[in-house]
């Protein structure tokens, strides 16, 4: 069995497309297809079901994936042990993170890093879940919750707070609600609960005290832009709201606190480039802790309970 064929197999399994796998490996899709066919011929097993939209693993492909990832882990470990530090501090590091944190924090915190480590390519992928780590689709994940299981190395990155905000022009036109009763008379913006994969996302119904929202979006950025356009009132992360002078905080006594966790698979944490990016993120966040929980007088933080659950839909 050829290791190069296994590398191609892993890329196809993770991207579910020959074309996307080819881009990752620097190969054309025809070469990727030939490598997969050669591997299937060698193993005398069909590894993928070809579809018009991509490929899916067969049962045999799923079994091979587990073995191939163990082999990949061994290769990564040996490479880390044998290569010198200068060589190791090059290559690509992919970071998965929620869209708000990725766009409004990570995208700007790498300016000095790029100057110090020009040989490392950083890729930001907006993704909130732990799943990509299991398939090595990301090297580092910023998650909303600590993984319950798996071969992951995890630490809390920071706590952060969220509050109720509206656009200044919206308030000039519709008035400023001073309590929950008045807030309920306004159009409220929230999350699509069918896509609320984590109890950390229950802050909308918590801060709005279960008042129904009439405009919903799965993206924190989408919710923010809806608020800024004057569509209504919604919840914004404090570190994001601080970057927009057109936003006005409402009912400051109602705030929620959540946490970001930084997660890596055990097999990549020893790689110099991954460790360097990880340390940069941790140091940057630590130096700017104040923006994630700014001091606002007269409020009580609303934290999720240990048994908090997200409802899939409203009655």
Descriptive labels:
D-Maltodextrin-Binding Protein, domain 2, seven-stranded mixed β-sheet, disordered C terminus, 315 residues, 15 helices, Arc Repressor Mutant, subunit A
Fold topology:
Layout: H1 3-15, H2 18-25, H3 29-43, E1 48-51, E2 54-57, H4 59-82, H5 85-88, E3 91-97, H6 99-109, H7 111-116, E4 120-126, H8 131-134, E5 140-143, E6 152-167, H9 168-174, H10 180-183, E7 189-190, H11 203-207, E8 215-216, H12 220-228, E9 234-237, H13 238-241, E10 247-265, H14 272-287, H15 289-292, E11 300-302
Task: Outline the structure in words.
- By secondary structure, this protein is of the alpha/beta class.
- Residues 298-315 have low confidence and may be disordered.
- The chain is 43% helix and 23% strand.
- Strands 3, 4, 5, 6, 9, 10 and 11 form a seven-stranded mixed β-sheet that branches.
- It has 15 helices and eleven strands.
Short description:
The protein has 15 helices and 11 strands. It has helices at residues 3-15, 18-25, 29-43, 59-82, 85-88, 99-109, 111-116, 131-134, 168-174, 180-183, 203-207, 220-228, 238-241, 272-287, 289-292, and strands at 48-51, 54-57, 91-97, 120-126, 140-143, 152-167, 189-190, 215-216, 234-237, 247-265, 300-302.
